[in-house]
Specification:
The chain is an alpha/beta fold and 312 residues long. It is built from seven helices and 14 strands. Strands 1-14-2-3-4-5 form a six-stranded mixed sheet, covered by helices on one side. It has a six-stranded mixed sheet with strand order 6-7-8-9-13-12. Helix 2 packs parallel to helix 3 and helix 3 packs parallel to helix 6. The longest helix is centred in the first third of the chain and has 20 residues.
Length: 312
């Protein structure tokens, strides 16, 4: 017997089996195969000792994710000089206690943070193919789409208060500083551009001249933010949001970034040019998934240990 359109049933069954195996791998193994990426970035003044920076992003915590919590707690063993949290900690309104438990050991170190859309709002069930359709139409988040309605509001305030109490510096359309071994590290951050909460005009002005290093921090690395930070002369920009594409095609890479960033920069270190300046951009692929699409393929969940070194 043959299937419709002349395709043998054995072929149809084989395709279905391969697809099912791929989904099982992406959801059952890779989404829980946590990795540490190590990157060196030459942005420090001459003679300054290297700094170890742990970037965590897109945790998307759902209650009961014990392996993810244990892995996040274990990262404290890296003994970073400071931590940068680039947002989307939640994918469950009940997940705040588990986020704080997982990040508790890291909150013993100096740190800064920004929030992403999923810190404020719970995710919605949607067809994953819409990301491709929206990319083709130039629509990303609320940038081109209608505002979200009837969304779940996450209890982000207790998480913010706990971060602040631990001494982490909030960069929600704000500037902040950390003092590391007598060196001044300045930060400029914005709220999430994916939902149009960024207010760069409130923090514009470029790097602080009396700081040893200035870093731009944003959750979703939209081009308008890269343009602003780079034109103002920031040597390093840190972001997340993209999940590295979440589903990547081997030997090709990411298909979408869920923002207007090109897919070549969907994860890892790259450079960006604007206004006669060049910035290093590091985009974390993050360590979580939307609770309704708990899969990753060719893009393991990650955190990144960045070693900042003196400029050549």
């Amino acid at each position: 017997m043959r299937a419709r359109y002349g395709i043998p049933l054995k072929v149809t069954a084989g395709i279905a089996a391969v697809g099912a195996a791929g989904i099982a791998y992406a959801a059952g193994f890779e989404a829980r195969s946590f990795r540490l990426r190590r990157v060196s970035v030459p942005v420090l003044p001459e003679g300054m000792r290297p700094l170890r920076v742990l970037q965590v992003s897109d945790i998307h915590m759902v209650c009961g994710q014990r392996k993810k919590q244990r892995w996040l707690r274990s990262l404290a063993g890296l003994r970073p000089d400071f931590v940068v949290n680039t947002g989307d900690n939640l994918s469950d309104p009940e997940g705040v206690p588990e986020v704080l438990d997982a990040l508790g050991p890291l909150m013993e170190f100096p740190g800064v943070y920004v929030f992403g859309s999923n810190d404020y709002y719970g995710p919605a069930l949607r067809n994953p193919a819409r990301y491709i359709f929206e990319k083709a139409q130039g629509k990303h988040g609320l940038n081109g789409n209608a505002p979200a309605v009837n969304v779940v509001h996450n209890p982000w305030e207790p998480m913010r208060d706990a971060f602040d109490e631990a001494g982490w510096v909030g960069l929600t359309n704000a500037r902040g500083r950390l003092k590391i071994d007598g060196h001044e590290i300045a930060f400029t951050g914005v709220d999430d551009p994916h939902i149009k909460r960024d207010r760069y005009a409130e923090v514009a002005g470029g790097p602080e001249q009396d700081a040893d290093l200035s870093i731009g921090v944003v959750h979703a690395p939209y081009l308008r933010m890269l343009q602003a930070f780079t034109s103002d002369g920031y040597p390093l920009i840190l972001g997340g949001h993209t999940h590295g594409g979440q589903l990547r095609i081997p030997f090709y890479g990411a298909v979408v970034t869920n923002c207007d960033l090109d897919t070549a920069r969907a994860r890892g270190l790259s450079t960006y040019d604007a206004g006669g300046h060049t910035s290093y951009l590091h985009v974390s692929a993050g360590c979580g998934t939307n609770r309704y699409t708990p899969v990753r393929f060719a893009c393991p969940p990650e955190a990144t240990l960045l070693t900042l070194t003196p400029r050549p």
